Amino acid sequence: RNFYYITILRDPVSRYLSEWRHVQRGATWKASLHVCDGRSPTTEELPSCYTGDDWSGCSLQEFMDCPYNLANNRQVRMLSDLSLVGCYNLSVMPEEQRNKVLLDSAKENLKRMAFFGLTEFQRKTQYLFEKTFNMNFISPFTQYNSTRASSVEIDKQTQQRIEALNFLDMELYDYAKDLFLQRYQYMRQKEHQEARRKRQEQRKILRAKQAHLREQSENNSSSTDYIGNVERW
């Protein structure tokens, strides 16, 4: 069988706020094993941000203040090969080197995917999916601009803090958006070229039919003239 990896990326600030709201309502990822190189991280490698059953009711400030929060740069971490940096063991290499390896890995894996979309471009995402896999959805994608994240009002300083906490995701998203639009433009050009080729083929067929009809008409005219002459003779 052929398996295709696909993903949908989201604006990092909106995604971060959405996850905070999700956690605030009591969501957890306790079932996630975070297995890497055949083992789960130790509590020392991946400490918890909260005590108790969940982190419900946490403020945005508390959410941002936890240095072990997996919401930080989640998209890069989930797209990259963590084994390249020693999984969750932060002592394997310097932080700057680790960040570069993770970002490069995430970009490469994203580029090699058969398809990826962007939450902020629903119609283009649908178009690319349909063209990539040669299948059509029964209804058009809807662009929802009103989300739980959009309902959160934050000041400029808080936004800058979130961007700083997700600086790898910010860079990945810029890369993804550029690659996504390149793929979209390529598919559109390919579609236009195919449509032009079909039009040219149709015109060619039409000209051939018209030439054939003219030839038949001329042959019929010649036959009529000959029969008329025979009758006179």
From TrEMBL:
Its main location: membrane. This is Heparan-sulfate 6-O-sulfotransferase. It holds the Pfam family Sulfotransfer_2. One of its GO terms (molecular function) is heparan sulfate 6-sulfotransferase activity. Belongs to the sulfotransferase 6 family. It is a single-pass type II membrane protein. 6-O-sulfation enzyme which catalyzes the transfer of sulfate from 3'-phosphoadenosine 5'-phosphosulfate (PAPS) to position 6 of the N-sulfoglucosamine residue (GlcNS) of heparan sulfate. It catalyses: alpha-D-glucosaminyl-[heparan sulfate](n) + 3'-phosphoadenylyl sulfate = 6-sulfo-alpha-D-glucosaminyl-[heparan sulfate](n) + adenosine 3',5'-bisphosphate + H(+). It comes from the Eukaryota. It comes from Tauraco erythrolophus (Red-crested turaco). InterPro entries: Heparan_SO4-6-sulfoTrfase, P-loop_NTPase, Sulfotransferase. It is an enzyme of class 2 (transferase). Keywords: Glycoprotein, Membrane, Signal-anchor, Transferase, Transmembrane, Transmembrane helix. It is found in: Membrane. Residues 210-233 are annotated as: Disordered. GO terms for cellular component: membrane. Its EC number is 2.8.2.-.
